[in-house]
Amino acid sequence: xxxxxxxxxxxxxxxxxxxxxxxxxxxxxxxxxxxxxxxxxxxxxxxxxxxxxxxxxxxxxxxxxxxxxxxxxxxxxxxxxxxxxxxxxxxxxxxxxxxxxxxxxxxxxxxxxxxxxxxxxxxxxxxxxxxxxxxxxxxxxxxxxxxxxxxxxxxxxxxxxxxxxxxxxxxxxxxxxxxxxxxxxxxxxxxxxxxxxxxxxxxxxxxxxxxxxxxxxxxxxxxxxxxxxxxxxxxxxxxxxxxxxxxxxxxxxxxxxxxxxxxxxxxxxxxxxxxxxxxxxxxx
Length: 284
Known about the structure:
- The protein has helices spanning 9-19, 23-26, 33-40, 44-52, 70-84, 89-98, 103-114, 127-134, 139-147, 164-175, 180-215, 223-283, and strands at 60-62, 65-67, 123-126, 151-155, 158-161.
- By secondary structure, it is mainly alpha-helical.
- The chain folds into three domains: 4-114, Multidrug-efflux Transporter Regulator, Chain: A, Domain 2; 123-194; 219-284.
């Protein structure tokens, strides 16, 4: 599963080349620390601080000057990417250490960990299109939809629909005569139950994959297997949830239909009993 769009392409190319053992990816160490700072957009002071923490490998020293190559640039870009994903420097250090210093393994695992489950492209609508599709919606409904993660305002009368599939479901419900506030209520309930299901699958990964890996000292050669397990969990969780939902939905429909049929059968009998009681009272 690839999620390259989440990362700077130059980082992906360099780390992938190094992972394949391509010597050209490392490049000749020809940059001074000032040149490395300029190319990476990081200050010399921060680069040296990262070196002291063991986050950036030492330079190749020739004479009295340290020289840096593409592998140093890729490592700095990786650190910036991971910081942007919410990792602190100590967490990054531990990740790199447990991966044997492999920028490629850490980047690939972070990519798999942070990649979104959804595979939809958001859709941008202007105010007129919102009115056309939804017949207008008051500010409170829009706030509820935003809180549910269905859409978000971009300003200037434009809205980003985060899940076009979910929007289509809402439009279909509206066509059935179900008002927008009721559709949002349904969305809130489904989201609440889905969160519980998501926790089940996350717990499966943590308890059966990550914790044994962690207890073993996070061996370098096992990183690809852990990443693969995380990537495979995504389609497996979706497929399992859909299959179970279809079964449960069939059972719920059958149960509801059975209740309604039984109610219809009971009502004529009850009406006959009430009519008989009224007749007896009149005769008496």
